[in-house]
Specification:
Layout (H helix, E strand, L loop, with lengths): L13 H21 L4 H19 L6 H8 L8 H15 L9 H11 L16 E4 L2 E5 L6 H14 L4 H15 L6 H16 L8 H7 L1 H14 L3 H28 L2 H10 L6 H8 L4 H14 L3 E3 L12 E3 L1 H11 L1
Antiparallel strand pairs: 1-2, 3-4
Helix pairs in contact: 1-11, 2-3, 2-4, 2-9, 4-5, 6-7, 7-8, 7-11, 9-11, 10-11, 12-14
Length: 341
């Protein structure tokens, strides 16, 4: 846990030890669930959730469907800045595996991608002093700009040499990074991105776990943990909060992967093959599948495919329309490409 140059202040509490143990067990269950051909679909879905949640924490108002549309290249009604934030975040997360977690160059490059066209000082440390506000209250005064390069170098050196468990080390880095607040803008989203990088270099599954969704849902607790750790001059409270969020993200992803596996049963896959690239009615699909019992078709084939968002109606506003037909969604097309590969 010691570094020759710098050692952050924190304590290993029973809560932290218990969380690390639980996360280890939960990761085992999740790896088992993800060890199948549906993984690319779940990866893509979780990446979109991650991006939308991390940006929403920073005030971006685009919802999950709008973020998905932006990444699919569709036109979206929204503020140009918010659309640019989505594109930047996707570019940054796409490059995640190419950076070293303890590299200053990588950190600056990541900021350059995240904040391209959004800030004046992009890809370089801030030149001025900053304070963090919550409403009218100043909750944190960051260290002077002149100290930022050396503080970041000390933190990165500690990260490279520490023998601390990666789960704990990633939380410590996240907290100290936010304390230093090294950039003019984008510190929150970059701190969360970098914790994901640290964890994914320990266990690759973390590259697609939407931990940011949990933070978004518990945003006030996230801020409170940062403020309390500032007050204590000790990262322990923040570590406990983040480990709890990591555990919750794993548990929720395990449940989701269970649902994806159920919905992508052999019957659903047969339905997707029957649809192909065409638009087909329920009667046409039943004929292609060799089925005559409509309730069985709906229960075991059509409804699970719709629930998993692999198939969609061409007339969603009138589900019982006599002219109703069905087609593959983008997710369905992606799954079929995976199956055919």
């Amino acid at each position: 846990m010691m570094s020759d140059r710098y050692t952050p202040m924190y304590r290993i509490t029973p809560v932290i030890l218990h969380c690390v143990e639980q996360i280890g067990e939960a990761l085992g269950n999740l790896r088992t669930q993800l060890d199948n051909a549906t993984t690319p679909v779940l990866r893509h879905s979780n990446r979109i959730k991650t991006i939308q949640a991390s940006l929403e924490i920073e005030g971006n108002t685009l919802n999950l469907d709008q973020v998905t549309a932006v990444l699919d290249g569709k036109r979206v009604l929204g503020q140009p800045r918010e659309i640019q934030e989505v594109r930047n975040a996707f570019a940054a997360y796409k490059e995640l595996s190419n950076w070293s977690a303890h590299s200053r160059y990588g950190l600056l490059a990541a900021h350059g991608l995240l904040m391209a066209g959004l800030a004046d000082e992009v890809g370089r440390f801030r030149s001025g002093n900053v304070g963090i506000h919550r409403g009218k209250e100043v909750v944190h005064i960051a260290p002077p700009a002149a100290r930022v390069p050396s503080l970041i170098d000390d933190l990165l050196a500690w990260l490279e040499t520490t023998e601390e468990h990666p789960l704990v080390a990633s939380c410590v880095f996240h907290y100290v990074f936010e304390f230093i607040h090294p950039f003019q803008d984008g510190n929150g989203r970059l701190g969360r991105l970098w914790q994901t990088l640290i964890l994914s270099q320990w266990r690759p599954v973390f590259a697609v776990l939407p931990i940011e969704s949990i933070i978004r849902d518990r945003q006030q607790d996230y801020y409170d943990a940062l403020v309390q750790s500032d007050h204590d001059a000790d990262a322990t409270v923040f570590i406990e909060f983040m480990l709890n969020a990591v555990l919750q993200a794993i548990e929720e992803s395990t449940l989701e992967s269970d649902q994806v596996t159920v919905h992508q049963s052999d019957q659903v896959i047969r339905l997707l093959h029957a649809l192909g690239q065409a638009q087909r009615s329920a009667s046409d699909l039943m004929a292609k599948l060799g089925l005559s019992h409509r309730p069985t078709f709906r229960k075991n084939y059509l409804h699970p495919a719709l629930a998993a968002q692999l198939v969609e109606m061409i007339h969603p506003d009138t589900p019982r329309s006599r002219n109703q037909k069905y087609r593959l969604t983008k997710r369905g097309e992606q799954l079929m490409k995976t199956k055919d590969a």
